[in-house]
Amino acid sequence: LDWPYHGASALLPSYRPTKIEPHESSSTSIVIAATVNRTWVGDHRPGDFPPDVTNQIVVGLMASTSIFGNDNPNLYVYYTSDGGKRKRCFNFLCHGFVQTSSKIALGTSFINGGSSITYGGVPYVAMSIHKVPGQQQWWVSVNDTVIGYFPHTLFPTFFPESYVNQLGGIVHNSRPNGVHTDTVMGNGRTPESGGSAMIKAYLAVGANGMDKKDVSIKPGATVPKCYDAAVLGENPEVPGYDIAYGGPGGSGCDQ
């Protein structure tokens, strides 16, 4: 929470979920978000959590048979300018993201050799959302390839920097048969059980466009009985922090 940020980068693990319910999704992502309350910005200091996250941009890997027709980890982007209340723009389903490279397409599956980065036998994909000093748009990079950008004009309320960088997993829970889904997050293991999925080498992007280590990282989970997260500390091999996350889901989450 050492804001303001001009983006975030990390290595995201590429897992195919061992269990995913129809019409649901399991994703691993980088989220940057900003408040539209400019008065709050002037009255608060880094470390304070903003009163809203109205403007958001997301890049990550998502498995969803209903969206992609397979359960592979597929590249996706997303943005909202109203906190996701009405405006929820996924890939090219509505106007927004401008693709500038033909090397990596949205929807690309990163499995079975789709990534050249491997740790412990797990393939990883390097991703970032960042601003270039002197420019207003938000750029997206995948495996060191700039694939496109989100124009600043997509956001009716100014989005010059972010105040929240969030990394981890998200499961869409449709509550099949009236109980909590058993769609897994990550590799289906929680950080407490050991051997869970890990996001590696998280770095924030400073206002000068340079990478920086975030000084305050707070783990959080909405259903910690079945999905959880933990900050593991600095990565000994590459700059940045490692974050463990994931879990099996299941009806026990409701108990």
List the defining traits of the structure above.
single chain, 255 residues, mainly beta, 10-stranded antiparallel sheet, 5-stranded antiparallel sheet, 2 helices, 15 strands
Secondary structure topology:
Blueprint: E1 7-13, E2 26-34, H1 38-43, E3 55-64, H2 65-68, E4 70-80, E5 89-90, E6 98-99, E7 117-119, E8 122-130, E9 138-142, E10 145-150, E11 164-171, E12 197-205, E13 211-212, E14 228-234, E15 241-246
Antiparallel strand pairs: 1-8, 1-12, 2-3, 2-11, 3-4, 4-5, 6-10, 7-8, 8-9, 9-10, 12-13, 12-15, 14-15
Counting DSSP E segments of at least 2 residues, the number of strands comes to 15
Unreliable parts: none
SSE order, as H and E?
EEHEHEEEEEEEEEEEE
- What structural class do you assign from the helix and strand content? mainly beta
Sheet with the most strands? 10 strands, antiparallel
Strand share of the residues? 35-45%
Shape: globular
Q: What is the end-to-end distance?
A: 32 Å
Q: How many whole angstroms does the radius of gyration measure?
A: 17 Å
Q: Summarize model confidence as the mean pLDDT.
A: 91
Number of domains: 1
Helicity, in percent? under 10%
Q: Please give the count of helices.
A: 2
InterPro entries: Glutamic_endopeptidase (IPR053168), Neprosin (IPR004314)
Domain Neprosin PEP catalytic: 1-254
Pfam families: Neprosin (PF03080)
Protein name: Neprosin PEP catalytic domain-containing protein
What can you tell me about this protein's structure?
- By secondary structure, this protein is mostly beta strands.
- It has one domain (7-246).
- It is 4% helix and 38% strand.
- The chain is built from 2 helices and 15 strands.
- Strands 1, 6, 7, 8, 9, 10, 12, 13, 14 and 15 form a 10-stranded antiparallel beta sheet that branches. A 5-stranded antiparallel beta sheet has the order 5-4-3-2-11.
- Strand 8 and strand 9 (138-142) form a beta hairpin.
- It is globular.
- The two termini are 32 Å apart.
- The model has no long low-confidence stretch (mean pLDDT 91).
